[in-house]
Amino acid sequence: MKVLVINAGSSSLKYQLIDMENESVIAKGLCERIGIEGSQLTHKVPGKEDWVQVNPMPTHETAINMVLSALVDKEHGVIADIKEIDAVGHRVVHGGSKCAESIKIDEEAKAIIKECFDLAPLHNPANLMGIEACEACMPGVPNVAVFDTSFGMGMEPAAYRYAIPEEYYDKYQIRRYGFHGTSHNFVSHETMAFAELPEDKRRIVVCHLGNGSSISASINGKCVDTSMGLTPLEGLLMGTRSGDIDPAVLQFIMNHDNISIDEMLNILNKKSGALALSGNLSSDFRDLSDAEAKGDEKAKLALDAFKHRVTKYIGAYIAAMGGVDAIAFTAGIGENDKDMRAEIMGHFAYLGIKIDPEKNSIRGKNVEISTEDSAVRVFVIPTNEELAIARETVRLA
Ligand code: AMP
Fold this sequence. Notes:
Layout: E1 2-8, E2 13-19, E3 24-32, E4 40-44, E5 51-54, H1 60-72, E6 85-92, E7 103-104, H2 107-115, H3 124-137, E8 143-147, H4 157-160, H5 166-172, H6 181-195, E9 203-209, E10 213-219, E11 222-226, H7 247-257, H8 261-270, H9 273-277, H10 285-293, H11 297-321, E12 326-330, H12 331-336, H13 338-346, H14 357-360, E13 367-368, E14 377-380, H15 385-396
Parallel strand pairs: 1-6, 6-8, 9-12, 12-14
Antiparallel strand pairs: 1-2, 2-3, 3-4, 4-5, 7-8, 9-10, 10-11, 13-14
């Protein structure tokens, strides 16, 4: 069975064609500048040179058509006929309170995704465009939506409710949903399997540390808490997001600088976080590490603040679960930055956590980085959201 995985943004569209017989990626690529001048498709086939096509893509439908043409192209293609694609899995950011699970697309499912436009105005409309484009270009092929918020739906009210008047929950379903759910779900399950954790010892903290970052606590695959909230702005400080902040700060700045709430949220989402603390040096953690090594104090502050917040959340989640059986690091920073992992875990030496420097240097695969006598087992588990989406698609399609 071959599954096409689509991650549609407002002006971009990422795809992967996965052969589910052996869960291998047959081809993948990216459409950029959809609806803008200078659209291009970059098509990648393992072992071959990238194929870049500059072609107008006024709509998501034209983008999907270009992807399908690339997949069956005589020279650069990987399948003989589009009919070889058995199903399409779509990343959808927000499923609201109605979608605790992935769903097969029908009119009702599309209505639910539309209902959540308010909750994810930048993402859900684009995700739906991707779905409708596939329906138009591949009639009869089943589409499945996999939601970033599904994993967080496992939380209990004590974790997901905001302590604000009930009417806002009743009227608007204002609650904590959490994001990166596909990654947290994948990595927590992968950790259980890789570590062969017995059923009564599956209290796991997953640290998804990338450009966007979040932490989750789960027991036996069920989410106990996760750091992002109604939107991805809550929780850790990130590349450009502030994470947790006293809302009175917003009022203060808005009143003094006479700016609107939309401008304020744009600042908190796009101009804050590590970028802001580093004095606008960079939101990229490699740049920050390089600058810190050269003595840049602001880059050091950004990195220290990030580690501090991650440490705080891990500690809180261990307490919330009454202990922890495994801690897993994933995503760009979590998978690649061994110093970051060692420093964060260093704060838990009092719990008896010990990291093996040699194992901590291994990259690119599942690895247990704690010592044999560590009180808690610590892992690096590369995330694979596309594969997780493809597996869900097979399950439902
Ligand atoms: P992601 O959003 O998961 O793609 O992660 C992107 C982030 O990972 C960026 O801030 C990168 O700088 C960071 N990253 C990737 N590789 C490394 C590395 N070797 N060391 C430190 N940070 C890295």
